[in-house]
Amino acid sequence: MEYIDNLPSMDLMRSEKMMFAQLIIPVESAHRAVSYLGELGLLQFRDLNDDKSPFQRTFVNQQVKRCAEMSRKLRFFKDQIHKAGLMPSPHPASQPDIDLEELEIRLAEHEHELIEMNTNSEKLQQTYNELLEFKMVLQKAGDFLVPSRSHSAAQETELDENVYTNNDYADSASLLEQEMQPGSSNESGVKFISGIICKSKGLRFERMLFRTTRGNMLFNQAPADDQIVDPASNEMVEKTVFVVFFSGEQARKKVLKICEAFGASCYPVPEDATKRRQITREVLSRLSELETTLEAGLRHRDTALTSIGFQLRSGPFLGEKEKAIYDMLNMLNFDVTKKCLVGEGWCPIFAKTKIQEALQRATFDSNSQVGIIFHVMDSVELPPTYFRTNHFTNAYQEIVDAYGVAKYQEANPAVYTIVTFPFLFAVMFGDWGHGICLLLGALFLIAREKRLGSQKLGSFMEMLFGGRYVLLMMSLFSIYCGLIYNEFFSVPFHIFGSSAYKCRDATCSDARSVGLIKDRDTYPFGVDPSWRGSRSELPFLNSLKMKMSILFGVAQMNLGILLSYFNARYFSNSLDIRYQFVPQMIFLNSLFGYLSLLIIIKWCSGSKADLYHVMIYMFLSPFEDLGENKLFWGQGVLQVILLLLALIAVPWMLFPKPFILRRLHTERFQGRTYGILGTSDMYNDEEPDSARQSHNEDFNFSEVFVHQMIHSIEFVLGAVSNTASYLRLWALSLAHSELSTVFYEKVLLLAWGYDNFIIRLVGLAVFAFATAFILLMMETLSAFLHALRLHWVEFQNKFYSGDGYKFRPFSFAALTDDDE
């Protein structure tokens, strides 16, 4: 054990050792000190003003509001650039220093300029839309007008019978009034109202008109030739031109009200064709002028946005940086003299020197006469968990953290997950042809790591890129397991020499007795290719993969229990070693460790013993003679001993620990001892930011006993269910192999049997599609999720509590990642 204690510590095995520090910062150097600490990114501040509302904090009414307002303006510019379809300018390698006040002035000027341009553009676009609608109404409504009406009726114009909904038509309306003098409005006759409405409202509009006028109207409509740009959503809208014929002043008022309610735009259309042509020419002339003006305005706006984006490319980060600094300053507390700020926080021990250097630099740069005091303090709080990871190990750490963040200094499963996770995936996905496809995808992502890392990716692509090294390991292990299974898109190859078997009959598939006969030495690596297609293929592979799954499962569960020993030893908890680790090892290996031993002996000896019978009657008839199922001398006696050990291990886990804890608690408060009993649960049920209690609370024996009973029952039942759960390795491996065989034999080979190029091409396309989307996507996701479950439930529940909280230092790099 001394040798184990003297081994050098691993970076990922346990989290970094943390210390609790207090900072006393003069006011004149506070801003610069916090800024330097943000660049360093190794100190997690603690909120000392947690009892104050956001409006009661020191810097909330001044700098924080200013930074929030600047952030709003920057988001406004970013949205406008995105809406205009312009690419944002890349961040330069060396960004020029911009003063906060100068940035604020620039933002205000640019915002005012851009809002004014947007307002003018919207007005011009609205005028253009109305003229375009007027043009289409003039063209379509003229076809509905009856040319044989009387001269007196023709004298009446539609100008008097329409309502202008926009003041921009004042010039156009006055022109029409000059050209079209209406006749007497007292004359009775059929009148009409023309306009345009959204196509989606046309049916309801017509139905409402019919019901309101009780059918005393004639409704004609025609689809508009051009779509109209909606200024609000900037989308194209389809519209319909309509003409409503009616009689009477009451009907006219009703029609106008309905048009207003449905948002229809009404336009004057003269009955005289000459006047319509004249007005149409004037409208077309104004449309041409407006198009030129709009294009010039858009070019000017795009130029202005490009200039704004170039000038303020460092603005978003500067604004977020300043806001983050003042947010951190709001977490500090003024001392009684109001001349210093007091802060507290966690940092790794290795970062102490770097933090002190940054604070000294802040004191020098701010010309402060008083230095910043960095004082290490004792704390009863549970420290945060911090692992230093790189591009390769980060993805595996994220897999573990998704289950739960490790408790401080707890054994980290990510160290073993780096190997066991891709390996268990490959056991279910074993095919070196499919593995090569995954390898090519992983190498592509790694080769373009810098380019893809600087781009904004979709959710799926971002997840795939983040796990590129996991995909790399999964593909390498899939190639390895595929070589063991001897499957290349389900096709076996004689890679490592000739087969050791030959067929007894003409073909292996038609063999009636043994099927395969051993002819030479065993195939040197992996499954012999002669098993493929033989009558014994499925029984052989099923037996092999099922037993192999049990061996892998028992080995990984033993590793989990062994890690619980190292946890207990690290936290100096002898109770967990004696009354948790030892009985758990005895129980698991007395049953399923013994089963694994029988599997290995059967493989080595070539025995035909029925292991199902051995394990079942080990419980039902432990003293019965094994007969032909006996694998070694003394097996029956060993089974009885192991069964008794498993039975003893259950009360061993359940009873001693609660009673010993009660006795120690009683002795502690009788003055016999004052030491705090260290247990693996000493930090459990504590809030991350709250101080731990001094363990003087009342000892609830019933609660401790029930907790221990639940834990013991969970382990006993879990030993059986978890071992059975590892059989998913066998099931998914078999499913993947059989699916590959079906696609190869029933699609590709079947199509290749036809002497027709088109049929072969279709068969090849279907095979490629099935391989890519079913085997390489769905099966990959399925195997990934099952491997994830095996690690989270079957492996980590043996030793991993996962009730810690992450170390989240104040860092400007995190702001950049969030912005991207």
Automatic annotation (TrEMBL):
UniProt topology in membrane: Multi-pass membrane protein
Keyword match ATP-binding: no
Coiled coil ranges: 100-127
Keyword Transport: yes
Superkingdom of the source species: Eukaryota
UniProt xrefs under InterPro entries: V-ATPase_116kDa_su, V-type_ATPase_116kDa_su_euka
Keywords: Coiled coil, Hydrogen ion transport, Ion transport, Membrane, Transmembrane, Transmembrane helix, Transport
Main location: membrane
Chain ranges passing through the membrane: 423-446, 467-485, 548-566, 586-603, 632-655, 757-778
Pfam families named in the record: V_ATPase_I
Compartment(s): Membrane
Family: Belongs to the V-ATPase 116 kDa subunit family.
Function: Essential component of the vacuolar proton pump (V-ATPase), a multimeric enzyme that catalyzes the translocation of protons across the membranes. Required for assembly and activity of the V-ATPase.
UniProt cross-references to PANTHER family, sorted A to Z: V-TYPE PROTON ATPASE SUBUNIT A1, VACUOLAR PROTON ATPASES
Protein name: V-type proton ATPase subunit a
